[in-house]
Amino acid sequence: xxxxxxxxxxxxxxxxxxxxxxxxxxxxxxxxxxxxxxxxxxxxxxxxxxxxxxxxxxxxxxxxxxxxxxxxxxxxxxxxxxxxxxxxxxxxxxxxxxxxxxxxxxxxxxxxxxxxxxxxxxxxxxxxxxxxxxxxxxxxxxxxxxxxxxxxxxxxxxxxxxxxxxxxxxxxxxxxxxxxxxxxxxxxxxxxxxxxxxxxxxxxxxxxxxxxxxxxxxxxx
Length: 221
Prior knowledge:
By secondary structure, the protein is mainly alpha-helical. The chain has twelve helices and no strands. The protein starts with 10 loop residues before the first helix and ends in a 5-residue tail after the last helix.
């Protein structure tokens, strides 16, 4: 009888439950993956290469990530979160919609057209038909989340009378699409092999802000 004692949990069972949840080990793997993917690209990189770069066994690698595609998407999500956080902070700190949208648009245009982000979009689109859950997760944690965050900012500007928008989510998606005009699609198809310059990004984003404010701005903006 053990009525007054804690339930007995076998060490092996406990270890199996917590396998793959160590944040330091996960970060170590992702750091190694970043080195390999940056140096070799997605297609040429192997799980063995990544395990060696991360200084973990191949078995440990598969405990954390079931395949190269899921590992790559997890890496992209980590990298873009840091960039997106900077963009959202800049947006939320600025009550002037013209300036706030311009700063946000530039950050997003840089992020989306970076080498790693372009590779990620190509990979996810390539596997989305046979791995729909991966495509959905990439979309929901990336484009959809960014649009929702921008819509929240637009809601506040509408409440202050600076913008007049019926559907702020639609408006957010429209603005983000405008900021990618002539920049992102050529990159995805490798028609343009290098990221756009700051001057190119500025020209496209400034035009996007002007179009957006002509449609949704009020006399207070």
